[in-house]
């Protein structure tokens, strides 16, 4: 597993924890395995109904942000690092919160 991917995910988790508008619980980071793949799951319990579909479509787009002082580079950097390492990022969102799954091939497992 590339250290860059792990750093990117933890950077994102850190962003979620420090959000000014978040009055929710803790961000959870878990590792799972699925055959020869490792999955890093980052979950924000959130509030409300999850990420709006219009926003969800744009996540990872460089310079797209919903934060007043955001740069829009955090998730686009995560997606770029994942692509370079043949990994994928999937998002599951709803009233129970939002989880980002980073799926990595593990040829040494």
TrEMBL record:
Q: Which GO terms describe its biological process?
A: phosphorelay signal transduction system
User: What Gene3D superfamilies does this protein map onto?
Assistant: Histidine kinase-like ATPase, C-terminal domain
Q: Where is the Histidine kinase domain?
A: 1-108
Q: Which GO terms describe its molecular function?
A: ATP binding; protein histidine kinase activity
Catalysed reactions listed for this entry:
ATP + protein L-histidine = ADP + protein N-phospho-L-histidine
Q: Which UniProt keywords apply?
A: ATP-binding, Kinase, Nucleotide-binding, Transferase, Two-component regulatory system
- Please tell me which top-level EC class this enzyme sits in: transferase
* EC number(s) recorded for this UniProt protein: 2.7.13.3
- Going by the entry's taxonomy, the superkingdom of the source organism is recorded as Bacteria
Q: Known PANTHER family for this protein?
A: C4-DICARBOXYLATE TRANSPORT SENSOR PROTEIN DCTB, SENSOR HISTIDINE KINASE
What is the recorded name of this protein? histidine kinase
* Source organism (scientific name): Desulforamulus profundi
């Amino acid at each position: 597993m590339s250290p860059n991917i792990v750093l990117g995910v933890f950077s994102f988790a850190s962003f979620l924890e420090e959000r000014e508008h978040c009055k929710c619980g803790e961000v959870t980071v878990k590792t799972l395995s699925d055959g020869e793949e490792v999955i890093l799951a980052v979950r924000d319990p959130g509030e409300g109904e999850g990420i709006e579909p219009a926003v969800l479509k744009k996540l990872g787009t460089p310079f797209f942000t919903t934060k007043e002082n955001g740069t829009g580079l955090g998730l686009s950097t995560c997606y770029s690092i994942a692509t370079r390492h043949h990994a994928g990022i999937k998002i599951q969102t709803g009233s129970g919160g939002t989880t980002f799954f980073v799926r990595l091939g593990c040829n040494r497992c």
